[in-house]
Structure formats: C-alpha cells, structure tokens
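Structure in, sequence out. Go:
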C-alpha cells in the first residue's frame, strides 16, 4: 500500500451494530477468485466502469438497470430477477457493492436490492476511490458468468421505503425527518448540489421539521471509509437528537444520497425503523400545496 494512503481501523473494532455488512479492500482482494462472491460496481458516472473496475466486477447502471423506463419507480420482480441472473448471481452468492462518490450510489443499489429481500449484501468500505488509492488493480475486461439461479421475492415497499402521503403524515405527527442534502439545498438557496445544474424542482427549501445532516458527514474524507460508531452517534444522536427506536424518514433529491444515510443508521448504528423517501425533493419541491420550510 502506498505510504501516503491514510490507515483505517479494522471494521470489527469500530463498534458497529452489524459490522458484517462492511468488507475491507483486503477482504475483496482475498476473494477475487471466490465463485460465491459477486462484486457489483454502481456509480453516479455511468461510464466510469468501462474505464477500469475491480477484476471480476459487474456493472449495475442505476438509470438503465434499476429504474422502470416509463413509470417513476423501480423495475418489477421478474425484470429484477432476470437482471441478477444475467450477472451470474445465485441464491447463495454474497454480493459486494462499491462505487464512486464515497459509495453513495453503491448504497443506493444496496437499498434497492434490499427492497426485494435479497440476502448476503455487503458494501466495500471506502469504495472505488479507496481501492484505487491503495494502488490495487483496475481492469477494463468485462467478465461473463453463467446465468445465475437466484429467486427474488416481490418488492417490499413498506419496511424501508416511504411515499409522499406517509411523509406528510410524518410532518403532521412531528416525527423524525432527516434532510441529507447540502446546506444550500436545505436553506432553499439551490435546487441541486453546488457543483451541479440548479434544476429539478419549482420550489426550494426543506420539508417542515427536517433536520439538516448532510450525508457525507458519515464518511471520513481522508480514508473514504465510514466513521466509527462513536462518531456516527455524535452526529446523529448527540447533535441532532435521533434515537435508535425513532421512526425516521430520510430524503435528499432523488433518494440516492439518503440511501447512504439509511445504510449508516440501519446497518451501522442498528436503527430499526428508518425509511428512505426516494421521491425526495424532485417530488416534494414540485407538489402543489406541499408544505415547505425555509430558515
């Protein structure tokens, strides 16, 4: 490993509720030839995979693969099952997600897979950037696997997903809402992140009562890995008053950044009732008469 790469603490020593959901770069390196492990790269930059990826990894395109081409929703069970089988995924396959942007799209894919009840899901801690900074191999060869045999259940839109009517009830009931967007978006100064086109909604601001906790605070910027549980508790509980038993809804602009926070709260801190509102601000900021708050 290059001497300039910041060291990271062992995953098992960070105090997570479910440390098994994260794997290290070394674990991935040790399992590159394991037929029961499938690496899945999912990026915001949908062309990045082709420039180089971890050997043996397959690509999941969040636009083409996971979203219905007509209705604003995810694909149905039969199409999702075909997708996974085409990637060589079996019922006993351990699926390891990783990607760019400190894994925010990897956790988004993880969240969608979880909606269908897929088991044995993991995330590569530190993502694509950590792997590359450690000087590990990236290849352009696209792997081909025999068709898998995984059986996928119907999508569960209740346990981990929230819709606008439920969010409105959340507001009316003064329950916990977390806005993971940038502070500028939260304040209504922008409709998208500062480095992106300022578009996507007719109104700016945030859902009334939501706390501003940008998604990236959960990541150590030097290592690109998740912060230890003690630091996460400081952010979410001591600074913002959340508790593991709270009924929490997280949101961003289209649900991708908030899936990262959903992952941190649910799997790393052990929260039992966190839902991701994937309609997020592109829906809420365009709804007629939807309540909006600005500081």
């Amino acid at each position: 490993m290059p001497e300039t790469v910041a060291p990271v603490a062992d995953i098992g020593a960070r105090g997570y509720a479910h440390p098994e959901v994260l794997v290290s770069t070394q674990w991935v390196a040790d399992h590159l030839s394991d037929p029961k492990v499938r690496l899945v790269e999912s990026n915001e930059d949908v062309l990045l995979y082709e420039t180089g990826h971890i050997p043996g990894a397959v690509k999941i395109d969040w636009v083409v693969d996971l979203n219905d081409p007509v209705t604003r929703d995810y694909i149905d069970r039969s199409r999702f099952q075909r997708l996974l089988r085409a990637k060589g995924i079996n019922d006993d396959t351990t699926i390891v997600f990783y990607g760019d942007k400190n894994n925010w799209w990897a956790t988004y894919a993880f969240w969608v897979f979880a909606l269908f009840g897929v088991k044995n899901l993991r995330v590569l801690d530190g993502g694509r950037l950590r792997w590359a900074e450690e000087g590990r191999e990236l290849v352009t060869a696209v792997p081909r696997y025999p068709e898998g045999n995984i059986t996928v259940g119907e999508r569960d839109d209740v346990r981990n997903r929230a819709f606008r009517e439920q969010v409105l009830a959340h507001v009316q009931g003064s329950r916990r809402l977390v806005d993971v967007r940038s502070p500028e978006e939260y304040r209504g100064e922008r409709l998208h992140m500062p480095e992106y086109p300022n578009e996507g909604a007719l109104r700016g601001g945030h859902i009334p009562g939501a706390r501003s906790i940008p998604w990236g605070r959960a990541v150590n910027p030097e290592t690109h890995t998740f912060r230890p549980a003690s630091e996460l508790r400081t952010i979410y509980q001591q600074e913002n008053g959340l508790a593991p038993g709270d009924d929490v809804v997280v949101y961003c602009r289209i649900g991708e950044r908030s899936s990262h926070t959903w992952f941190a709260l649910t799997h790393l801190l052990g929260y039992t009732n966190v839902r991701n509102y994937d309609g997020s601000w592109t829906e809420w900021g365009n709804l007629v008469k939807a309540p909006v708050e600005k500081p």
